[in-house]
Design a protein that fits this description.
227 residues; alpha/beta; Helicase, Ruva Protein, domain 3; 8 helices; 7 strands
């Protein structure tokens, strides 16, 4: 059974912002190597770093943490129609690089700009750079010098910790058997953890039910997870 802190007011279904500060980061064997590497900045072995890992592994969270620490500029995309930054120095983050979704000439320009300004570039991707389909020879040579950091999919320890924190952020104290039930049956994704906690919270409020394993099971099924 769960307990929710009461303010005497009706609950409002307001979106919660995802926590992106370093102190909000939970560490397990799945991400510890990547966390240690990002924490080692500015003592990086190369100006270009690629954070590669599956969807939902926490690449965006780590990139945001590093961007805040390094005062990096975050570029959501590098398509052929995207404007290049006016500032020609500093650190940069480009997220979700995959084959076909970025301009090779623009990425080449960003790399040269970062190197000339003695900054760092952090790229995130679901695939290793060898699978990006790069055809521009000069960009191929640049990418061979990049340092790749692997981020594994969340393990049970990380998922349990994330679920516990997400429930706590909503002022909900959920018993560990419920969290264990969810962690061992859910999609291995931090993004899915957010969706699941929201679905459980909404179901609990709508039906005025305590958060139990049966309620969690219904929420999992509503998100397409079958037992």
């Amino acid at each position: 059974m769960s307990k929710r802190k009461s303010s005497g007011q009706l609950p409002l279904h307001l979106p919660l912002e995802a926590a992106s500060a370093r102190e909000d980061l939970l560490v397990s064997d799945a991400n510890s190597a990547a966390v240690r590497f990002l924490d080692s900045w500015p003592e990086w072995p190369a100006p270009i770093v690629i954070l590669a890992g599956p969807t939902g592994a926490g690449k965006t969270h780590l990139a945001q943490i590093w961007a805040a620490r390094s005062q990096a500029h975050i570029l959501p995309s590098l398509g052929p129609d995207d404007e290049l930054p006016q500032q020609t120095y500093g650190n940069y983050v480009v997220e979700d690089i995959v084959q076909g979704n970025f301009s090779e000439t623009r990425l080449f320009h960003i790399i040269n700009m970062v190197k000339s300004g003695k900054g760092n570039l952090l790229l995130t991707s679901r695939r290793w750079p060898g699978n990006w389909g790069i055809v521009l020879p000069d960009l191929q040579s640049r990418m061979k010098l990049a340092h790749v950091v692997e981020l594994n999919e969340p393990d049970d320890k990380l998922l349990r910790g994330v679920l516990f924190k997400l429930f706590a952020d909503r002022q909900m104290m959920v018993e560990m058997p419920v969290i264990e039930y969810c962690a061992t049956r859910m999609e291995r994704s931090l993004a899915f953890a957010q969706k699941l906690v929201e679905a459980i919270d909404q179901a609990s409020l709508a039906e005025k039910r305590a958060i139990t394993i049966p309620l969690a099971s219904l929420a999992l099924q509503s998100l397409g997870m079958q037992e």
